[in-house]
Amino acid sequence: MLKKFVGVGAMILSLTLGLTVIHGKAQDAAPAKAAPEAIEPRHAYRVDFVLTEMEDGRKINSRQYALNLNAGENDQLKVGTRVPVEVKQGEIQYLDVGTNLWCRLRDRSNTEPSEHGLRELSWLGNDVMLNVTAEVSSFAVPDQQGASPRPAIRQMKVEGSTIAVVGKQMVVGIVDDPNSKRQYQLEVTVTKLK
Predict the structure, then answer these.
(1) What's the rounded Cα separation, in Å, for the pair 181 and 28?
(2) Residue 14 pLDDT more than 70?
(3) What CA–CA distance (Å, rounded) separates 186 from 171?
(4) In what helix (H) or strand (E) does residue 6 lie, and over which residues does it extend?
(5) Cβ neighbours of residue 128 under 8 Å, at least 6 residues apart?
(6) What is the signed CA dihedral for 44, 192, 98, 86, rounded to 10 degrees?
């Protein structure tokens, strides 16, 4: 009887070990078939912004801003004042008044199959994918504010996506001020850093 139990136990043990070895070999073989993903090359860039204010076709003001960023990442630049505003009795919320710039760059690339079936990235030229948001706000002058005791805030926003040629200045957006004869123009120049 004891021989029977030992024989059955040995058989169960050998079946369990055999199935574990077969299962382990199948798991080891699976990752070898998966192709490694291509890694996008990252380049460093400088993005120069020029915000020009014009009235009746002539330039009356110009402000310049610059950001250094890596392709594939986004950066933000904020200049201004945080203004407390009471939204409910005793509840205060802060508004950002000033200039807020947000930018994201991506290298333009394509993928081509290689002789090994893997995908490689190749540089297509001297341009980048550019996403920009520029928001400029200011307090309205007293005669445009009305009778409200709270400050009126005027705002201009330009948001756009385009392909930018490295080294060339381009206009991203133009906005007319509905309360005056002024026009705002946002220009961007992208420079590749070494």
Answers:
(1) 71
(2) no
(3) 6
(4) helix 2-33
(5) 45, 71, 105, 106, 107, 108, 163, 164, 166, 190
(6) -30
Contact 121, 37 (CB under 8 A): no
SS3 16: helix
> Are residues 114 and 175 both part of a single domain?
yes
pLDDT of 109 reads 56
Instruction: Supply 189's token pair.
Output: 């120049």
Structural domain boundaries enclosing 182: 44-192
Q: Which residues of 80-114 are buried (b: 16+ CB within 10 A; e: fewer)?
A: eeebeeeeeeeeeeeeebebbbbbbbebebeeeee
First and final C-alpha spacing in the chain: 82
| Neighbour tally for 75: CB within 10 Å | 14
Other CB atoms within 10 Å distance of the CB of residue 65: 15
Tell me the pLDDT tens digit for each residue of 148-180. Answer: 667 788 888 989 899 999 999 999 999 998 878
80 and 156 part of one domain:
yes
Residue 39 is assigned to a structural domain of this protein: no
